Amino acid sequence: MRTGMLALAAGLASLTVLPALPPTWLLWLVLPVGLMLLPYRSYPLALFLFGLGWACVSAQWALGERLPAELDGQTLWLEGQVVGLPEQRAGVVRFHLVDAVARRHALPDKLRLAWYDGPTLQAGERWRLAVRLKRPQGLVNPQGFDYEAWLLAQRIGATGTVKQGELLAPASGMTAWRDRLRQRLLHVDAQGRAGALAALVLGDDSGLTLADWRLLQDTGTVHLLVISGQHVALLAALLYGLVAGLARLGFWPRCLPWLPAACTLAFVGALAYGLLAGFEVPVRRACVMIAVVLLWRLRFRHLGVWTPLLLAWIAVLLIEPLAVLQAGFWLSFGAVALLALVFSGRLGAWPWWLVWWRAQWTLALGLLPLFLALSLPISASGPLANLFAVPWVSFLVVPLALLGTLLLPVPGVGEGLLWLAGGLLELLFQLLGLLAAALPAWLPMQLPVWAWVLVSLGVCLLLLPAGVPLRILGLPLLLPLLFPPQQLPAQGQAQVWQLDVGQGLAVLVRTREHALLYDAGPRYGDFDLGERVVVPSLRALGVSRLDVMLLSHADSDHAGGALAVQQRLPVARVLSGEATVLPQQLAAESCVDGASWLWDGVRFTTWRWAQAAEGNQASCVLKVEAAGENLLLTGDIDMAAERALLAEGRELRADWLQIPHHGSRTSSSAAFIEAVAPSAALLSRGNNNPFGHPHPLVVASYRARGITLYDNVATGALRIRLGAREAPYGWRERRVFWREK
């Protein structure tokens, strides 16, 4: 039986490694073939095929719900209902809309929308909206959050921006009640931590600031401030323990068996907490796991601990196969499996403090391969932080927050409990801040497969029981993590990465011993691409410091992420065409016209128009020459700056040209293009951006001259081996079934 369960579990989980989904006709063939093989000895193969077929069919349904390509970028009037708890941050309201209908077009079942300077929305309201719709697409870089995978896992078929709207029906139902409760919680005096309490009680994390998220990430405690399996399981365990304790003390009615009552009460409590939190995917997963564990405790303890874990895995993926696209699925099951592995077979009783400490370092070490595979930051302070933060939140803050919420109708009582819970949270954040300042999160370099396998093997050896021979050999196997293998450019060559930062620019130029970042990506309000994309990508590529950060000019789409880069990476020198306009913290120096330097056989030369007005004209232009192959980075220069550059008689010919100003019509004059005479041009812009970049006439001008265009929307991050004269590599070429090329 267990072999068949393993086969089914593997079939359901194999969805995550498929580069493309099988054709629909093959899927409809696989499912009946799998069912026909069940009665025979090959039933494990049948179950594997059934699991794979069901997962692929479910994924096909989700992909089929995406916005039709002909509607991408179109503005439509539609009607729908707001679901979930809308997030309002930095003047932007983000929310989900379901049951959306338009007059002449079929729309996806679920939309994720943003309304800039929009009104306060409530869950359950019905609106008529004018929305500019987009097909699901995210930024694709060497490391970073996979937005497209997340949207698919949430079964969101389109995103969009609201232009205007009118309310058709007020809020009603359970979601409206949750929204009113959220507003009540946010206005309670919780010593500045009302947003964190709303996150614990309702699963609404919009009240947590970016500084809060950074602190939680640095200390490995993100799981404590969002409703996860841990919180739901804690409530279930408390209710189960309450009944068990009453029975042990003799206060439980003898006519009512305590074990079925304890299991029932625990599951009902977990389900109620899940409904209060909106019953999102992580909570649903936790409820399924708790149900399986309680059923095992009630009837099937003789089967051991691995069978219920395997059953929970299968149940979760049968209900939602796309859960494998979320990091939380792998981390939650990985954590439970590790704890079962370490504690299920131990001999004798351990002191509670030893059990708790062993659990923390086991999770920190054992989950390391998963964190590496999922490209997640690794917290060096996590074991120590969780040692006190987990019981602090679990046994003090959460019970007080839930009890205070329940007693809010009682004047003074509920508010008092929430005030106390908020004070405990504030003290916890102060303690975590001390740890984060000493040991911030570490973003490791991406490891090749062979190095990841060695590290995983080393972790497995170190987790073996004490006294096992060769266990100490696990330590040297972790060395690739500390000294990752790198493919550095050859002498006289450079590796160039145009990162995918949307409507902005960030280009890494790396020689054998040096690194230069040309522009640092955009920042829009609290959405900083420097922190979210540029820094993780640099770390993943093995860049630990920057010799120069050259910011072409001070516009936010080019220099907005600079402070985040400087805070996370050592930067020896900052240059800019608008040094005096940039924040003083950057200590930027002015770009010097005609400056030139040589790194590892690669020549760098700058140019800046001395008579330029502030803004785009002042962009510092950079030319990079490696083994006779040239790259020209132009920032946002306009036609006037182009004419000035041509008038100086500089040698402008380059094999690669970064298209000025994202393809705006005010740049890329015919004379400039002919003077540079590139073989290929690089375009960095946002998909369906509001500026209409690139202008069709500019695109036509390049193509008429036979110049190949590389657009980050189509390629993702783009790598060029300057000096090797090779074809570039786009990160979107890495095939995964949910990503459009």
TrEMBL record:
Q: Cellular component GO terms, alphabetically?
A: plasma membrane
The UniProt keywords, alphabetically, are: Cell membrane, Membrane, Transmembrane, Transmembrane helix
Question: Main site of residence?
Answer: membrane
Q: Name one GO biological process term.
A: establishment of competence for transformation
Pfam families reported for this sequence: Competence, DUF4131, Lactamase_B
| Transmembrane feature ranges | 43-63, 222-243, 255-276, 305-323, 329-349, 361-380, 392-410, 417-443, 449-473
Location(s), subcellular: Cell membrane
Write down the superkingdom of origin.
Bacteria
Q: How does it sit in the membrane?
A: Multi-pass membrane protein
**Which positions fall inside the Metallo-beta-lactamase domain?**
503-687
Is Cell membrane included in the keywords of this UniProt record? yes
Q: What is this protein called?
A: DNA internalization-related competence protein ComEC/Rec2
Q: Which organism is it from?
A: Aquipseudomonas campi
High-level lineage: Bacteria, Pseudomonadati, Pseudomonadota, Gammaproteobacteria, Pseudomonadales
